[in-house]
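Field: COMPLEX_INPUT
Field: COMPONENT_COUNT = two
Field: RESIDUE_TOTAL = 775
Field: MODE = joint
Values follow.
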Amino acid sequence: MNYRLLPNVWRAGCAAAVVAATCWSGSASARDLTFTSWGGAYQDAESKAYLQPFTAATGTKIAEDSYTGEIAKIRSQVESGAITWDVVDVAGDALSIGCQQGLFEKLDWSKIADKADFIPAAVQECAIGMSAGGVVLTYDQDKYPDGPKTWADMWDVKKWPGKRGLSFDPKLNLDMALLADGVSKNDLYKVLATPEGVDRAFAKLDQLKPNIHWYKTEAEAVQNLASGEFTMAMEYYGRVFALNKSEKRNFAKVDTAGYLLELTNYAVLKGSPNLDSAYKLLAFAAQPKIQAGWTNYYPYGPANTKAYDLIAADVRAKLLSPTEAGGASVFVDEAFWAANLEDLQKRFSAWAAK
Amino acid sequence: MEQTAGTPLSSSDWRENARVTADLGVLFRRANRRRQWRAASLIAPPIVFVFLTFVMPIGVFLFRAVDNRAIAHMLPRTIETLSDWNGKEAPEESAFAALAEDLRQDKDNRTLGILSSNLGQKFQGLRPMVMQLANLTAPPGGVKAAAIAANPHWNEPAVWSVIARQRSTLTPQFLLMSVDLTQDWTGRIVAVAPSQALFVEVILRSVWIALVVTVLTLLVGFPVAYLMAGVSRHRANLLLILVLLPFWTSLLVRTMAWMILLDDRGVINNVLVWAHAIDAPLHLMTNRLGVYIGMVYVFLPFIVLPLYATMLGVPRESMRAAASLGANRIQAFRHVFLPQVVPGTVAGAVTVGVLSVGYYITPLLLGGPHEQMLSYFVAFFINGTLNWNMAAALAMLLLVLVVASLSVVIWAVGLKRLNWT
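Field: COMPLEX_OUTPUT
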């Protein structure tokens, strides 16, 4: 070893460390507001309806990232303190778990919007509900002019033979099975919270089991619907709507059966360095005008009830509207699922493999 | 130290000789130690790197399978108060008050969700009870009376013994649950409720799928490697590229390609129906068959490469020699060729077996409900419910499974005979 080299090495090392430290702190503070959502056409719509107008109005740049709902990615950011996301579009059950575990900021609604303007379910401790997404009963109206009217019709394999497309998850399926079995929507989660109710839901699904095609990705769901593999299916309406639009198809959303509604939620990561900008984005996106504009890009009804007067009638007819929850539709009880998902998932996996 | 034959050693010679030998030995050992240190210092950076970036994070994560410190930390007053509890009947008001105070604190710290779901896993029904008690506001008649009025189960010593058990910094609960066991309130190990029993079946399923995939991959890969070892260098290289080509494509893309091929309305079925070979489409995926096809395809290179390397090392002359000694081709193959390629075969099979037992993407996409393996549930607990304790327990189980089966193979074949290149 050439010992005269050592000081140089030492100096070079120090210089590298200083540069690295500068970059590190620089990237942490000067980072743009980062918005993370589910990717695809859905995030494109969010970008056009909320993010781009926000940047145009305020000059605040927004970086975008995508995930597939893995709340583990949020937990590891919050636990390590290396926070790279600010505002996230998060699913209801994950929101419920994350809010309890302190992964999201508790929101100060006075900085966002008037709570009274929003549907009650959208006003949450850790998030603002932006719009009502959810699953619908769907089928090809061109193929079956006299199609199913209720969830119970899914079980009528004589009248409509063929596969039923259902997501490979206990969530939504157990809820839907109870509705099909005649449980009223107001009692749904009271019944599902009892062991007898869970037995009843599994018994109902058991009757349909030979005809069920369990899909594991949204892409698989849409592709099988388009190819005719599914006679009917329970699918996210946003995807069905996009399929109808892009392929000029005529897949129904059966309004009489009611939808299983889930809010799309915006939450802010706990400890986000861009908290102020995040609040500004939430407040901007919550405005009736912006919420109404969203419906031009995606068929999920706004959570701000004041937005509906600003939506054209033809657009409104194709929306999955949360005000429909007054009819046959029901809001999925995210807190119930957050509390019971593990037990029901284990039972569901064992049952499905039987 | 060579002695001339016939010359007897005098005793002084012998001593001198022994001294020199000892000195040489010391010198040799010293030199050797220095060389070893130098070698060690050269490989130290990669070892430290591997330790810091691989062994440590995995170790820390796996420790979550038994780690109970966080939970004990959330119940400081309760654990303190319960330390002299007799365990026979529900404790005094002081324990109820301590628990209520701890829960209020946890609610403020936003750790109540973690605590309640953790306790709920350790004792059925405890989760809603804990949530309820946390929301109880300063009752006039004492916490005990109010808690029992809200839920009579608070009067049962069973509930309290589960809470008292949280003073321990380690918990066996998640490891037990990973094999469908649990502790009852006395601490005895019992089977979980039948509706919650799942993982033993999943483990058996994972092991079985891994075994079948390994055997099938071997059956397909062996002839390919044999062919490659037999043809000219130029052709062998071409075949090698064909074998490696899929390696350079994203796994997800390759699996999606198989979905397009195997689907009920996929390419294979369409061609067969069009050719009138079949009337109704064959079910080639969302079942075991699809998983086998997809996984054998993915793992083929892992078995072809070590086999090919081993077969190249088998002298062709040995086969000719066998023939010249009167063996027919099958006899020569069985008694001369096969024994020489055992190391490569075992190495390839072990690699495929180990990789496939923890496989995720292919069973997820090409399999149905019967094909979901352990990793599916690891992913569910990590991403779906944030129950990293349970995910760690399942991962630990997988690790134990792999290490155990590897040990059996190494014991049976011998480490030195294995050839991984």
